Amino acid sequence: MVSKDVNQIRKGILKILVLKLLSEGKKYGYELLEEMDKKSAGFFKVKEGTLYPILYKLEDGGFVTSEWEIPNDRAKAKKYYFITEAGKQELEELINFWNCLAVNVQEFLRKEEQ
Amino acid sequence: MKHKVNQYINQIDRGLQLPYKIRKKIKMELTSEIHLRMEAGEGLDDILSSIGSPKEVIAELESNYEHEYFSFRKTRNFALAVWSVVTVLMGGFLFYSLVTLIGSKGTFSKIIGNGNMAVYIAYKYSLKEIVFGLCAEVVLFLFPLLQVMKQMKFLKCHKDME
Lengths: 114, 162
Fold this sequence. Notes:
The structure holds two protein chains of two kinds. Chain A has helices at residues 2-23, 29-39, 48-60, 85-113, and strands at 27-28, 64-69, 78-83. In chain A, 66% of the residues lie in helices and 12% in strands. Chain A has four helices and three strands. Chain B has helices at residues 2-15, 20-39, 44-51, 54-64, 66-104, 127-161, and strands spanning 107-112, 119-124. Chain B contains six helices and two strands, in the order H-H-H-H-H-E-E-H. Chain B has a two-stranded antiparallel sheet with strand order 1-2. Classes of the chains: A alpha+beta, B mainly alpha.
């Protein structure tokens, strides 16, 4: 039960992280996985089965767009994701909400401990 | 190498109980990722084990597409129920036709009207008519039966993977 709750919270946070990484520039799926892993020192090591649904849902919501890029040097095509204006706005709102949530939850837990 | 990648991707694709649109996206993206990582020098076995076994990938994707997963299953079960009913009806119709045909030895007869006004009509089907009629009924029975088997195979295949 706890793991299910943790997963739900994690999924919500991952949405913020993906948008944040895309706000820095276009990225393809595996690049996102690697950066998330590296920047969180392994805490957000997610698999493709978790990342792709997040990306597709963001795309369906109009927060992200994607484009297949075929390089000239016979290398394999990459699907790049870009953040949209709606995505940037969503990210801003999510960050504000996250900051507010983190402060309030911390405060609540501290009071409970006392 | 290519065969192994295709086998891995197809196993995931066949096992996923998600709409075709989503499955297609996942298939393309996974294939691209595997090839990109291979081009970057990673070994295929390492790549596949880091992504996870097809069973693990399917479970993870389906848990992240809970709504789509349940509605997809619901659609499949509904299709199975509808095709089962059609199969039973067509089977019954075929059985009735066969029994009638054997009982009447290929003759259709009927008395229309009463008393002095009664008319007896008899018609003997030609072999061509009997064969054509039966073939049409067999096809009409086999088509829904094949659909039932297809749906059952699909659901069983996914149950096994679970």
